[in-house]
Amino acid sequence: MRRLASIAIVLGLTGCGIGGMDDLQTFVAETGKDMQGKIEPLPEVKVYEPFTYNAFDLPDPFKPRKLSTGGGGGMQPDLNRPKEPLESFSLETLKMVGALSKQGLIHAVIKTPDNAIYHVKKGNYIGQNFGLVTQISDSEVTLREIVQDSAGDWSERISTLILQE
């Protein structure tokens, strides 16, 4: 009886395996047709060219060096005179807010960034570039500034402060 039962089980299992995998095998075969490995070719290797550093006689770019100073020109500011209060502010931060006339002399009213008010007249200094007030009108203050370039030469430029409304 045991023998008969084992033969029946083997025949039953054999019958289950036949033909049940046809659709799976077809799917795998069809799916694999389009899948071919595409490997890109390796990039071309460039030949190494050694570089010889020959700039030992050039100045080191990481060390500060002083530019050669020019003759300084004939114009130079008076560095020994006492500084006026408005010379501690840059000209861009100062505002002309009005003009006054006292005894026939026109004074400009200047406002600083900290909202302090100063009266200036012709001959006063304003700004950090030795700006000498040369002319005052109802709408602007004209200055003659003396600035130094990178070579150490002094040059003159004219600047104005326009009345701020």
The largest pleated sheet is described as: 4 strands, antiparallel
- Derived structural class: alpha+beta
Number of strands: 7
Helices, by number, come to: 2
Could you tell me the mean pLDDT? Answer: 83
The proportion of residues forming helix, as a percent range, comes to 10-25%
Physical arrangement of strands within the biggest beta sheet: 4-5-6-7
Distance between the termini: 119 Å
Q: Which ranges are low-confidence, i.e. pLDDT below 50, for 5 or more consecutive residues?
A: none
Whole-angstrom Rg: 46 Å
Commentary on this structure:
- 10% of the residues are buried.
- The protein has a four-stranded antiparallel beta sheet, with no helix packed on it. Strands 1-2-3 form a three-stranded antiparallel beta sheet, with no helix packed on it.
- The longest helix has 16 residues, at 2-17.
- It is α+β, with helices and mostly antiparallel strands and 165 residues long.
- The mean pLDDT is 83.
- The protein has helices at residues 2-17, 22-33, and strands spanning 95-102, 105-111, 117-120, 125-126, 131-136, 140-148, 154-162.
- It is built from two helices and seven strands, in the order H-H-E-E-E-E-E-E-E.
- The radius of gyration is 46 Å and the shape is elongated.
- The chain starts with a helix and ends with a strand.
- Strand 4 and strand 5 form a beta hairpin.
- Helix content is 17%, strand content 27%.
- The protein has a domain at 89-162: SH3 type barrels, CATH 2.30.30.830.
